[in-house]
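Human:
Care to share another protein and its fold?

Assistant:
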Amino acid sequence: MGWTPGKRLRDVIWIPERLLPSAYFFGDMPDSLPLACSFSPAELHAQRETLLPGLVAHAVEQSMLPRGMRFRFPATAERMRQIDAVVRRERACCPFLEFRVGLALGGSALTLDVTGPEGTDQMLALLLEPSIAA
């Protein structure tokens, strides 16, 4: 089970302060995390610059991964600090996301891979659409 096209984004990721139905859990393992964000749409919009949508506005390239997305940034100290701050905030509100930061050989580019359970790639693509993220 995962996010499927046609499902409204708010039905999948914005479910604050209530228990999720078992349909939102992935896999058979009891430690699976739901594809759910603890922020409401209003909170997400208000805090956009300090979350993933604000960070990826600075990406020079983005590509899909099997269960997520990869973002490439110029390798600067400022961008590395921003990535660190965003990852810390996102981990608090979206614990189902997994983050991997990489530095290209020669130090010319930073990459951020954001992955998660099945459906994370579609959820991120929809979340980061300019009409939704802005």
Q: What stands out?
A: The beta strands are 61-65, 68-74, 98-103, 109-115. The two ends are 29 Å apart (CA to CA).
